[in-house]
Model the fold of this input.
Amino acid sequence: MKKWERVVVGVDGSESSKHALAWAADQAREHDATLEVITAWTPPMVPATPGYAAYATTNDADFSDSAELQLTETVKAVLGDEPDVPLRRQVLEGHPAPLLIAASEGADLVAVGCRGHGGFTGMLLGSVSQHLTAHARCPVVVVR
Done:
């Protein structure tokens, strides 16, 4: 059996992503693998005013810093101040589905929580877990 090297987990601060983080950490620990924790952020959409460009006036670094803080707090809340598993943290700009699909390349496992948008919102937005299960390059676990 191949030795595991990397377990990827997507977190967004939600309760379901905290459950996914705990589950993924257990798997990484059990298989002596590195836990790669990824959070994603996207700049907000700003409605256009006729005659003016539609863009956010806040620096992208502000959004990245907020995502970094959320990631740090989530990891600390779930795994404590000094996690007992090798950990790699990433804060990436973009939609989480394609970022996690890219991260699945060469990974042994990807885990995500299930937020359960469903209904009309789910049809419009799609689901990160649906995209992962269809396109990831390794096994995917959706933790409820």
Notes: Strands lie at 6-10, 34-41, 87-93, 109-113, 140-143. The two ends are 28 Å apart (CA to CA). Confidence is low (pLDDT under 50) at residues 121-125.
